[in-house]
Amino acid sequence: MSDVASLADGQWQWSGWLSPKGRVQALFALLRTGPESIWLLLPDGDAGALKAAMERFVFRSKVKLRVPGELSLCGSFTAPGAASGAMAATDAGGRVELDLGDGTSPRTLRICPGCSAPADSAALARWRAFDLVHGLPRPGPDGLEAWTPQQLSLDRLHAYSVRKGCYPGQEIVARTHFLGQAKRGLGLFAADSAPAVEAQVMEGERAIGTVASAAAAAGEADGHAALVLAVLPLQRPADAPGLAVDGMPLVPLPLRDGLAR
Q1: CA nearest 184: which of 228, 146, 152?
Q2: Is the residue at 226 inside a domain?
Q3: Strand (E) positions, 11-106?
Q4: Which domain covers residue 114, as residue numbers?
Q5: Residue 129 lies in a domain
Q6: 182 part of a folded domain
Q7: In this structure, is residue 49 part of a structural domain?
Q8: What is the pLDDT of residue 98?
Q9: Which Gene3D superfamilies match (predicted)?
């Protein structure tokens, strides 16, 4: 759903794959590693299923899709050595480095053949919380099929295009954009525990939204155990009742900038 042709070699952007009805099937980072090679880095979901869905649109083009089993990913909350912003960097050993920080808090992802590091559950929770507070939904295996890119506020990440050529769901995305019909978007909240994806967000006795993603706060919400991204009406009265999910109050938090590419 993003403009792949605009990427230079070594550049990356957020992107996604939509259903014909414009619902988000997958979110990923899309990296052009060379003139004829593009990587999709999928943080959640089934890579094999995404490959199969995309193969239906390979016609006479000489395109080959595969899920590489020889590559490993390692993340760290340190500044990249050479990558910066949307430009990746590749060293002499073929290790690829991406800058996933926000310009203030550093974060680096490295992709390499055969590299390994011990799994760290606390670091993984912190990584996921970082994504949520910057407006990148992380639904895990639950998926995002209920929502359009606009409802997930993916314009904040520059993750979709309304002007490139056709792609599945493009008509819905473009119509919503040009007719100004986007009435819902993401809100970030702190909560005492993580609700299930697609749990209803209540305003008093009325359901007004849906949980799109939730995770342990990992230090990102003082005094609360969880972070919640929910799809809600963009406009609410100033005197509207507070929000809750499963009877648990939601505390509004500002979405942070800096993760767009």
Answers
A1: 152
A2: no
A3: 12-18, 24-34, 37-41, 71-76, 89-90, 96-99
A4: 4-142
A5: yes
A6: no
A7: yes
A8: 98
A9: 2.40.30.160, Aminomethyltransferase beta-barrel domains (3.30.70.1400)
> Do 21 and 178 touch, CB atoms closer than 8 A?
no
In the chain, the number of structural domains is 1
Burial 128-164 (b: 16+ CB within 10 A, else e): bbbbbbbbbbbbeebbbebbbbbbbbbbbbbbbbbee
pLDDT for the residue numbered 171: 92
* Residue 127 pLDDT class (50, 70, 90 cuts): very high
Closest CA to 155 of 173, 171, 130, 139: 173
| pTM over cut 0.85 | yes
Share of the chain above pLDDT 90, in %: 77
**Which two three-digit tokens encode residue 91?**
């060293």
Counting residues of the chain whose pLDDT is more than 70, the rounded percentage is 100
How far is the C-alpha of 131 from the C-alpha of 171, rounded, in Å? 28
Give the helix, strand, coil percentages of the chain, each rounded to 5: 15, 30, 50
Least confident of 163-177, 211-225, 240-254: 163-177
Over residues 31-61, the pLDDT tens digits come to 999 999 999 999 998 999 999 999 998 887 7
57 to 28, 51, 62, 167: CA distances (angstroms): 18, 10, 12, 10
